Amino acid sequence: MRDLTELTWHEVREAGTRAIALLPIGSQEQHAAHLPMGTDTLLAEAVLDRAAALLAEDPAGSELIRLPALPFGHSPHHLFAAAVSLSAATLGAVLDDVLDSLVTSGYRRIMVVNGHGGNDEIMRLAVKRFALRADVTVAACSYWTITAGDGGADDGRPEVTPGHAYWFETSLMLAAHPGLVRTPVAPRAPVEPPPLFDNPPYPGLTVERHGEWARVGGSTDDASGADAPSGRRLLGDRARGLALAIRAFDAATIRTEEKNEDH
Description:
By secondary structure, the protein is of the alpha/beta class. The chain has helices at about 10-15, 40-55, 90-105, 120-135, 165-175, 210-215, 230-260; strands at about 1-5, 20-25, 30, 65, 85, 110-115, 135-140. Helix 4 links the parallel strand 6 and strand 7.
């Protein structure tokens, strides 16, 4: 994997004929009292970089160009404490402009790797709309949804994935950036009633109630049980899963690109 920032424009143009452009996106927002504002950005980058390192072990593997992470996301629900938030329309427009720039620079295969729940729907809609109007193949995922399928990805706790500033994210940060986690992580008493966004009254419902994030103190639950060994297992599983996803995307799209070139 090569960084777009470090390439000349000639190298960027030349790589576009073959490579997959990878765009990590995250957020700057409160993550309770123990995690930094950039947690979502840092974790998206950590998973992506580890996946790329795995792919680099294959000499015939995918050629990858990594863009700088987009550090801002859609986080109005965290402004009660602190956040730097883009509106949904602005984030969609930014993604559209970035994708359009890549296509103009010669890229036809692009993958967006997201680290923040508030970006997920906007990101997916942006790539769907973009592929309707541009000659490009675009993929998108949130890193926590892509696993290697080894059965133990969440250490027996899949119901808390990803949560917010909770066991999952805190364990990952203890593995990837331990110096940025404010330890010890204080226990948090259960909040009653549980927030509706995390506990809908009926399966399949999406429910948001005004003021819920402030009421629960900015996290979905108690993170005091997080630990680095769990984080390393979680991070490794997501990295392996993302590497498999990139390899599959490469295999599924390179044939299409070669066919188009032949004609």
